[in-house]
């Protein structure tokens, strides 16, 4: 089978054109069980060949490990890739296994220097605030992020899991290129307020976990029994036990649509997220995560699938029926504060 290069979309009002699908790199070092470095490197190279240019990491993915792992790939292709990383999940001095949220200026400055060093680049293309610390005014955090732009350490700014009000306040300080939040057939809470605000403000949407962390592909049915003990998905209510069993049944209409297109479940899930761009009128650049070159091919091929109005209608009721939250503690999501 031959695969063609994916189309592009604009990242932020005055930003670069990037492949309309990015690549989530988190699982290459963190959260989703055993990894194979050679296979991950092959996935990165295959993605670039197919027109994927936005690569997503964070300092928190394996306590810096993911940025370090990606560094040689980024250096080899510096002019072709758009590097997105994040700060805010800090290691408290008394317990290296825990994470606390920090948005204060000294922490932002310390974090950007550490990320630049690990990535071994002069500038980060897109720098996100990963989570919101409600004790720090967002204007102050974005203020220091804007200083990083003026100093040439960062090109564009992004925010993850912010509310519409937080996005508006941030945009008053400095243009925000992208909001990265969870958006999939199972997670549509941002459509109420965040997406309309992003459209109005000229902000692009970067949906994370567009495959429902793999659940929407049918690759696991119950995190508690199918995944390794340290897998992060075992902490997420909707992928475990009775919730998971009820949610697996919700994939039936996805299967029906997939059969009609000769596509996989995951491809339909990705095509649906991609089509949010036309439905909501803003650039949408999902970042499915995979460590396998064959899955990069499968996922990027989904950019060519267009779902009919009837198919969209069939998929429409799914999210309202999902059992269990997307995180154990929803306070750290936009939905938990909106
Ligand atoms: N801002 C935030 O708070 C936040 C939170 C979570 C994630 N993220 C970012 O978003 C990216 C994507 O989200 P995600 O990785 O959580 O979830 P996702 O993209 O919804 O799903 C990733 C999972 O699906 C599997 N998968 C991928 N393609 C597949 C295919 N074609 N068939 C079967 N299984 C497939 C992957 O396994 P393999 O790797 O084994 O293929 C992995 O287990 C992350 O990598 C990270 O960069 C950001």
TrEMBL record:
The keyword Oxidoreductase applies. This is Aldo/keto reductase. GO terms for cellular component: cytoplasm. Residues 22-317 form the NADP-dependent oxidoreductase domain. It comes from the Bacteria. InterPro entries: Aldo-Keto_reductase (IPR050791), NAD(P)_OxRdtase_dom_sf (IPR036812), NADP_OxRdtase_dom (IPR023210). Keywords: Oxidoreductase. One of its GO terms (molecular function) is oxidoreductase activity. SUPFAM superfamilies: NAD(P)-linked oxidoreductase (SSF51430). It comes from Streptomyces humidus.
């Amino acid at each position: 089978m031959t695969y063609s290069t994916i189309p592009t979309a604009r990242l932020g009002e005055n930003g670069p054109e990037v492949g309309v699908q990015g690549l989530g790199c988190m699982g290459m070092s963190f959260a989703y069980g055993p990894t194979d470095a050679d296979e991950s490197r092959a996935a990165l190279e295959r993605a670039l060949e197919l027109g994927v240019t936005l690569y997503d990491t964070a300092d928190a993915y394996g306590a810096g490990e993911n940025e370090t792992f990606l560094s040689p790939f980024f250096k080899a292709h510096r002019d072709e890739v758009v590097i997105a990383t994040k700060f805010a999940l800090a290691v408290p001095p008394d317990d290296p296994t825990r994470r606390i949220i920090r948005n204060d200026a000294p922490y932002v400055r310390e974090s950007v220097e550490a990320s630049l060093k690990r990535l071994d680049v002069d500038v980060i293309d897109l720098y996100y605030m990963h989570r919101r610390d409600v004790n720090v005014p967002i204007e102050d955090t974005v203020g220091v992020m804007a200083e990083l732009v003026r100093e040439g350490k960062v090109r564009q700014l992004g925010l993850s899991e912010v509310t519409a009000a937080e996005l508006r306040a941030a945009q008053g300080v400095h243009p925000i290129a992208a909001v990265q939040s969870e958006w999939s057939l199972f997670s549509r809470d941002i459509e109420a307020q965040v997406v309309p605000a992003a459209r109005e403000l000229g902000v692009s949407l970067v949906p994370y976990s567009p495959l429902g962390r793999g659940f929407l592909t049918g690759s696991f049915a119950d995190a508690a029994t199918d995944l390794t003990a340290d897998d992060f998905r075992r902490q997420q209510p909707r992928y475990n036990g009775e919730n998971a069993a009820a949610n697996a049944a919700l994939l039936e209409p996805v299967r029906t649509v997939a059969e009609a297109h000769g596509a996989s479940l995951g491809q339909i899930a990705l095509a649906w997220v991609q089509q949010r761009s036309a439905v909501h009128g803003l650039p949408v650049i999902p970042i499915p995560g995979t460590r396998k070159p064959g899955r990069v091919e499968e996922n990027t091929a989904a950019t060519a699938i267009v779902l009919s109005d009837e198919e969209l209608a069939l998929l429409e009721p799914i999210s309202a029926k999902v059992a269990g939250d997307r995180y154990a503690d929803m306070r750290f999501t936009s939905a938990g504060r909106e």
